[in-house]
Amino acid sequence: MASRKTLLIGAGVAVLAAAGVALAAQQNHEANENRIIGEHSEKDIALNQVPEAAMNAARARLASIREAELVTRKADGSTLYEIEGKDKAGKKVELFVTPDGQVLGGGNDGDEDKD
Questions:
Q1: Residue 78 domain boundaries
Q2: What is the pTM of this model?
């Protein structure tokens, strides 16, 4: 039977491994964003602040919309909207949409979003 110390060390290693996986996923998400839209800054905004054309483009691709961020590209100062919602399968999806409704890209996190 394993000693209590061995069990505690094993549990600690498992926690650290899970944290490492979460950090790697976050870094991969940020790298994907930078690949699609370049270096940028983000600011949370209310959905009613997103231009109608951008919201219509997002509604065409998402079953529901949950939140939005105003994205400012560092290279040229242009703005985009990162619109987050769920697809028909219930997967969390983020879209990058221009103010005039052009979808530049996005991604499916592959996570079931239960809330």
A1: 4-112
A2: 0.67
